[in-house]
Write a structure and sequence with these properties.
Shape: elongated
Strand order of the largest sheet: 11-12-13-10-9-14-15-17-16
Helix content: 25-40%
Largest sheet: 9 strands, mixed
Distance between the termini: 23 Å
Structural class: alpha/beta
Length: 503
Amino acid sequence: MFPKRYCYSAKLAITLIIIAAAHPTSSNAFKQASYVKRKVASNAVDHASTSITSFYSPQYVAKTTESFKLADLFWLQANVMAYCDNDQSAVQKLAFHRPTASLLLGYNGTSSNSSDQVLPFPTNRVQYVGVVVASGATAQDLLDCIKTTSASFVTSSTTNCNYSWTLDCDTFEPLAGRQFTTSMIMCAVSRHLSGEPVLGRDDIDDETISYLLVETSSKLYLIQKLPIDNQMHDTYQENLNRFRQEWSRRPFQYSGAVNIEIAITVVDMLQRLVSKNGEEPKDNRRIRLLDPTCGSGSFLAAAAQLWNSNNHQNESLDIVGIDSNFKCSDGASKNFCKLFGLERISEEEDSRGKRWTVSGVDPQSELPIRTAIYCGDSAELLSSKSLDGEFDCVVSNLPWNRNTFEYKQETSNCKSTEIITRIAEVVKPGKPVIVVSGSNDPALSFNAKRTFKELGFDIVGEVTIPPAGFSLPESGKKKNTVASDRQTNRNSNCVVTIVIAPR
């Protein structure tokens, strides 16, 4: 199970009743829904399904933060959390809010006891999470469902018959065939809710139930919001904000560096997968992490600063980064020196090439972090097996051939394939690898997912950033036809692929 800060605690006395009521009427109906759910995610490690699901009836829903381009990455992160908790079900995409690029995610719980349910929604990536009270494909279906279930969940929701509630709404897309206004459906729903509505913010207390009417193009949901462990969330958020600020002031800025939010999310998923697939005692164990194309060191820095910030496992890190560009490897070492507040670093050269060594301390666990950055050809260094053993995890932003002129190298699609082949030779069996690459256009010679499959890796998931087909909402301004066509026809910026090494 994940740390408590990733668990959303419902009012225990009502959640089971609400869930049972929201999915009437018999256990056979629930079993049938569970069967459909398992069919959707029959492959435990291949959760990637990029389409919006309309037939799916979740028990829990969550809305991701306003991410602009990273919505699918947050969805993949939620699926990784479910996968790491040995959950065979997938987190589904129910709706997409274009103006903010936020997703509505749906999930069916695995525990018969709601107090034990761990939800795969990272607190720093969601705006709210709730349990589904009622749902319907039309407004009348929703009202009928509320009528059917209200007696059950209202009488069990509180020991006080005069409990209070609030009702708000969130529209992702207008319901197909919509013939009502938002105020009309809100009034109709409120008529079927027992208890007393709260009319002023001063009357809201810890016992007040927060209902939310969520509208999508295919279904209406009435949900009860669940509380978030704000104390743990705030602590993690403080660590994130501190790292963002420190990294923004790094001395070596590289135009081809991966977006720092991508790096933070990728490192979070990598840490979870290492913990799931680890056999050693989790406390104080040593984790070897490799980035064979480290650039300015974004992935390595995120790992060094955040690896132990969202767990209590106290794992010490042994980080190895490689880059063939001297300016990048030298710049990465300077960035690490700044990150750990060091004045100087160890620099030496041997048969493996030039190497910088930076020793620091994990800000959360206070355990040592050793970082070695090499300047050289990663494929050659890995094939020579001169990096002192195998690795527990690998992360890489593979060459795209889109660098600025100053840093452009003689790389090709074949080079990325060779790097992946060498990664397969040095990563431990059953351990995770996450790579960022250019477009996975089938017409191109290189495709990360296909290459990993050919090498026997299990595919956990893959998403594009921004989501495939994503475009900004149209404004009232006069269009720039050339720019508009370029945006419509261009490929997605990058692809994130997560795999597990063959055992």
